[in-house]
Structure of Signal recognition particle protein:
Amino acid sequence: MFENLSERLSGVFDRLTKQGALSEDDVKTALREVRVALLEADVSLPVARDFVKKVQEQATGQAVTKSVTPGQQVVKIVHDALVDTLTGEEDPGELKIDNPPAPILMVGLQGGGKTTTTAKLAKRLKEKNGKRVLMASLDVYRPAAQDQLAVLGTQIGVDTLPIVKGQSPVDIAKRAKQQATMGGYDVYMLDTAGRLSIDEELMAEVEAVRDVANPRETLLVVDGLTGQDAVHTAENFEERIGISGVVLTRMDGDGRGGAALSMRAVTGKPIRFVGLGEKMDAVEEFHPERIAGRILG
Ligand code: GDP
């Protein structure tokens, strides 16, 4: 569907006269292509513009290595700059779960993959970190939501909080904390209800749950295929609730992953995990190089 950026740049450089160093004009021409490729990969315009400026400063005047073409060299510079932009100081896969029971709050819009991701991360905590996890669904609106989490719990061998009809999300959060403390769990995960779009009611509810649970991690789960919408959602949640990171789901789809670059630049929050399918193992910690490769195509 897309012309790959490496091919595109080779084409541009084939038309240019060969020189010993990357001239400002060469770099400018190449970076026009990079900017178009970034926009096609759904990176937002201001982020693409800033990024290209940064690369331009790095690339101008660099000697062209004999073993690679100028096109390949620019691709490498762009790749390294993407990785640099996407890499934070923290270890994305390391969840803060000391002082048991550690609460993890899962937030996001409906259909983003929140419940699935809650179970995937619970399984990972159990198998990789050897933790005892309790999951609780706070979705009192969709009758099937609490059952959905219970079914996943049975499937992965992780306990879920028994369902009590008629309780509010805050009541359920309190009960989860109590059960996690009494039951000697290391972690309890609160799967909040989503809405089709961000509204005051949703935010007020999540805020109330946050205040009761005092979470160590608040992970926002967003559909990576929704591109800029995912970034706007993250901006809203960060502003109102405060998040400790983002999980980008559906990265097994054919989206180009540009949302990842904008996410970091716009919200300042790290992407912690990536969802790669519907199965319970289809989650991995965020690898900047993989997304960079994908954005470049
Ligand atoms: P929630 O409303 O945010 O809790 O969303 P769900 O967890 O119910 O997920 C909605 C749908 O997306 C389900 O059919 C999931 O199996 C699917 N889903 C979740 N994460 C991923 C992912 O990373 N890749 C793919 N392909 N599907 C996913």
Residues 108, 110-116, 194, 249-250, 252, 275-278, 282 surround guanosine-5'-diphosphate (CB under 6 Å).
